[in-house]
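Sequence in, structure out.
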Amino acid sequence: MTKTVVLLLTLIGLLIAPVAIAQADDKPTIAWMKWGDSSNVALAEKAILDVLEVYGFINADERALLNDERSIEGERLNIIYGDALFDRMEANSLIDEAFDKDADVFVTFTTQMTQIVYYAIHEFLDPPKLIFTVTSGPYITGVAQSSCIKPDFVIGTVPVTNYEDIVPLLLMQDPEMKVAGAIYSPQQRASEVGVARISEIGESLGLTVVAESIFAPPDLYQAVENLADQGAEAIIIPIFTFQGLSLLLSLSYDYGLPVVFSAPQNAFRGGTIGGGFYGLYKQGVIAGNMLIGHLNGDMDISSTGIYESEDFAFAVNLDAASLQDVEISQTLLDGAAYIVENGQSAQGVTRQYPEADITLPDMPLEERRAADLEFLAGLECTPEIIAEQQAALDAAE
């Protein structure tokens, strides 16, 4: 072999080597996008991190950084940790940062953050994948039409809120109740839909529901006063995110009005009664399995359906009831998933993680993977399912 040929092969090797190294070092980048902190989000976050850790995508040190809400450049995964702090401009800044760092997947928490991210990426020719959780309104916000009629890059988990189960809690507390007040935000579509449904169900039960809208926390002063003037005997809150919880609770003490939230965990935040979807840790686990399935190439997001669940429970806060001078009915006490008294729950539920079962089952990794893949396979969008859902959408229109 001539010196010229040897030199040429050496140069080719030097040119190829950096490419091979770059490919070996190439790691998926996940944009972790929160609208803000809440116990709902905390449950789902813990679940997804549990799944990533048990599958070896993050180690204990990386998990500790993520628990502290810090981004990581991990051994197997990069995660850009972002919290919008309930601010739309901050959310847009986080998305721009994710674009700059070539995020492969957006993991979003809550309807608000999911909607913002979706409309930021949906017109891309090859958009990043979007995996959402703690997201009750993907269908009414345009992110998807149904579980299987959706963009190819979208998947997630939906906690279904059945107001048919929540509104009767008012009458379980006081069978003689005639008027209930509702507070909602016209800025959040899910809350508008929720208050309309609450009014319909209330009417069917012989209960008049009067509603007040708010745009910012200070509006609560007038809203609660108006509801009290209209004879409201309790306040019910549909699903929506707002920052005036402490103010609302303080006003409820002043007016002696129990507050029913459409989520059990809000009983731990000071609501008198919280009823609704109960299983957000489980939803986070499933979203984590979807992420693992995508990263391992075991799952096609385009042909896998959005997971929906209707698990229902309610909880009671005796501390709030005492401040409102309200006596909780025995019927509610007997049926509650947990009761908060003196700031604690005898059922082992905590304020940060307000559900009872928040750990992964202990099993060998291969057995876990087989079970998880079997579950995801059950979400396949077959032609028959797609046709059935499209027919339902056409009929609804």
